[in-house]
Amino acid sequence: MFEVSVEYTFAAGHALRGYKGKCENVHGHNYKVQLVIAGEQLDSTGLLMDFVEVRKKIKDLVERLDHRFLNDVAPFDKLNPSAENIAKYFCDELEPPVSKHGLRVNAVTIWETDTTSATYRPK
Question: How far apart are CA 120 and CA 87, in angstroms?
Fold first, then answer.
């Protein structure tokens, strides 16, 4: 099994609905997202998937969220914009283009700070 990973950063604000603490207030993070792609076979050039292509797919998704208030952006206008839900969102959005290459998303990790993160792994 081969894995490749790409990281990308973005800044966004959010407020956790129903959270009884400081994070219920509007605040922001400099998020880091890491996408891990897995597969059994390399292509004819010895790559699992070109890093340039992976970065472009993440960048396209990040552009929807960067410098935005996540609570105003679908699906987070209804779904609480927790790190866990953001990780699953990235996974759900990136799985279709990755699977077209016969690969799978193995994990998505979202860091809210240098020391706090949430990871989503699809079944």
Answer: 6
